Amino acid sequence: MSSLDDIKQTFFLECEELLEALNDGLADIEAAIPDDTFDTETINAVFRTVHSIKGGAASFGLEPIVRFSHCFETVLDLMRSGKVRPDTTNVRVLHRAADHLADLVAASRSDTPLDAAAGDALLAQLNALAGHAPQVAAPVVPIPDVTSAGPDDGDLAFLPLAIPFDFDPAGAGEPIPRTFRIEMTCSRELFANGHDPVHLFRELAALGDLTVEADLSALPDFDALDPLVCLLSWRLELLSEASEEDLREIFEFVEGLAQVRIEASSGAQDATGSQDAVEAPHELPPPPVATFDADPAARPPAPETSEADAPSTRREAKAAPGRAPKSTVRVDLDLVDSLINIVGELVINQSVLSQSLSDANVAHRSEIGGSLDEYKNLALQIQECVMSLRAQSVKQLFQRMARIVRETSEIAGKSVAFETDGEDTEIDKTVIERLIEPLTHILRNAIDHGLEAPDRRRAAGKTPTGTVRLSAGHRSGRVVIEVSDDGSGINRPKVQAIAVKKGLIAPDLQLSDNEIDRLLFLPGFSTADSVTDLSGRGVGMDVVRSEIQKLGGRVGIFSHPGKGTTFSISLPLTLAVLDGMVVDVAGQTMVVPITSVVETIRPDLSDLHMIGATSQVIKVRDALVPIVDLGMIFSYRDEPVDRARMVILLVETEQSERWGLAVDRIIDQRQVVIKSLEGNYGHVDGVAAATILGDGKIALIIDPEETARMADSGSAVASLMSAAGG
Amino acid sequence: MTDALDMQGNATRELVSFAIGEQDFCMDIMLVREIRGWTNVTMLPHAPAHILGVINLRGAVVPIVDLAARLGLEPITPTERHVIIIAVLGDQTVGFLVSAVSDIIGISPSEIQSPPRATSENAADFIEGVIADERRMLRILNIASVLPRTRVVEEA
């Protein structure tokens, strides 16, 4: 499946970085030999890189890499704990091992077999090194036979060493126009969600010759017709060279709102059996190629083979190793940042230009006016592209994690139901990339240590299948990613005992539950009784914490004995993109995150009531909702906003309390890039961050949660004051 | 902050001199990123009086400090003729509103005197030294002391 190939390519890209870090680390160790000043963190870092390669390779069933890196990291582990001294001879072996590991990775990537002799010799050397230590613990847990996965489990069944298929030459040639038959039945809510099938059809028509036939049979008489309810269905025929994925990408917009059935039939004479009628049930997650919108420029050309099914992609990968698998470029983040800023300036510059043109009374229709319009369009297009470089939905990350869960559960012998939520949450691309490792660790721990074995679950009155849930969302101005399991929770006495045994804490230390939970994040802590391929080297959680901290985030653990554990990763919004409602507050432009806005109300004066001198409430249906005057709470003005003209944004806090934020008017609704205020200034109460609007002005992004809290304490003061006055 | 002076040794220090109201100040040229005209700011709620607001400096959110107000002088009412000095100290970028930028001067460390102790405690905190010649007195601003305080780094 193409998703698998994508993920695998990502793994190889990461391997490149890891191998580079590995070599750097070894060089550092080597440099420290003469004066005997070893930084344990360096050895730790080297160990982690090998461990990460091993972990990733295990996920893809790349057994040669796993077997070799396991021996490799055993030596490094011994070195880390001081049982093997890093001297010149040893480090030379490690260097050679690193080179060999790179060869193994390259061999796996290009699917060419590697001479086993060199590896065996090195393995012997590594084992000899490990043998110097008092005890050698390097049980290689067998890689599960991934081919034994069910036939419906296409991702799992991928085996890189499979015998090459014969490549179908028909698929490799020029794209062949095919006829797609598409049936689309819309749910009644389609229009209510702001969709219009006409746009979809237009996009389809851009791909080839399209005929559309509407099915009006479900329509009632004209008198009974509700124009807001969609009762139509369509039959479409499209003759196009596009792939089925391209088509599905178009229909992605109406996912969940329409039943779409796509049938492809080849117009070519030499159509093979497998090319017939590939049904695309839309409920399935669409292939990640379609969701990977973040870098449209880097997207590979759509596969020109007529089948979008798994075997074809696999066959392609086997038969054409020479072709670039996916051409992406890793770009320095600072470069992207400065590009974003420069483009922002460009857009502002453009608006300044058009302003001065109109000031100079240059006719809009003139040549220069027309060129300026073009300039404006181009600038906006560049801005859109550049912005999309950074923000990306977490969907692909979640898909990758689903794979980790499947494989871990198989190895651990536990049955796991994996649930995800908030896949559309957009996070900075780099953040996504750097979340892979921590999330992998957390998920493996959740399955390996969190969930009980099926028989113990039954004994505890739970379903034998454990549930692991991965969710993402924006909350209180931060991105929160949570991994929760319904396992046994953290065994606190055991955790504390282990920490004492490992000398991490003093034996007589009194710790609160939360403090005990946090012991898991200490370097060198591991509750795993046995060393496995997947987890349990004690590198897990401390790496998780340091990685998340590097992203400016925090990790929290919430555990309930017998009920499960939740890991909560909270990341700052700094680089994230947010859907915001741009509002006018006493002449200042502010942004309210749309996710927290339940509805907007232009209140009827009869629904507004004063409580005391300053507090105001609004009646929303049957509930009374307190009103926060944003202009007042931010001290932009002393008088409340004009009641007759104000607009109320109804927001809901995490505690499900409702508040009405009173603003002067709503200006716009748009995606904004979040800029931190805290780097150069500091935190402002009630403000989550800032953003830069199209005119170059800064607007503050309101934190509705905090604003409501401020209003809460403010009204308490107000009521005290009025009590004192009365 | 006196050690900053010691570190300079005998090398000539280049300073940007500027006026705040009637008084002349200067700061190390290495701290100055750029000098730009006044632009309208976005007000920050609950900010101290000397924080005028924030501006967009090529994509970065930069707070603007009214140096006059910060030093306890008569606050400046900004107009187009006023000037913002963008200074970078460590990771922090800040803009200072001043009346005018005068010139760039080279000063040898021997010409720099310690701030006179006679001044009130408060004002002396902002000054790391003074340079006096026949015509005028230049106060060397201690930038670190007039920066807005950023968020204390959270530690888990």
TrEMBL record, chain A:
Region feature Disordered, mapped onto this chain: 265-326
Residue spans of biased composition, Polar residues class: 266-275
Location of the HPt domain: 1-108
UniProt enzyme class: transferase
Domain CheW-like per the UniProt entry, residue ranges: 577-713
Keyword tags: ATP-binding, Chemotaxis, Kinase, Nucleotide-binding, Phosphoprotein, Transferase, Two-component regulatory system
Origin superkingdom: Bacteria
Modified residues (Phosphohistidine): 51
One function term, GO molecular function aspect: ATP binding
EC number: 2.7.13.3
Coiled coil: none
Function: Involved in the transmission of sensory signals from the chemoreceptors to the flagellar motors. CheA is autophosphorylated; it can transfer its phosphate group to either CheB or CheY.
Protein name per its UniProtKB record: Chemotaxis protein CheA
Species in which this protein is naturally found: Roseivivax isoporae LMG 25204
Automatic annotation (TrEMBL), chain B:
Cross-referenced Pfam families: CheW
Domain of life assignment: Bacteria
GO BP term, pick one: chemotaxis
GO CC annotations, alphabetized: cytosol
Ranges of residues in domain CheW-like: 12-152
Entry-linked PANTHER family: CHEMOTAXIS PROTEIN CHEW, CHEMOTAXIS SENSOR HISTIDINE KINASE-RELATED
UniProt-recorded name of the protein: Chemotaxis protein CheW
Organism of derivation: Roseivivax isoporae LMG 25204
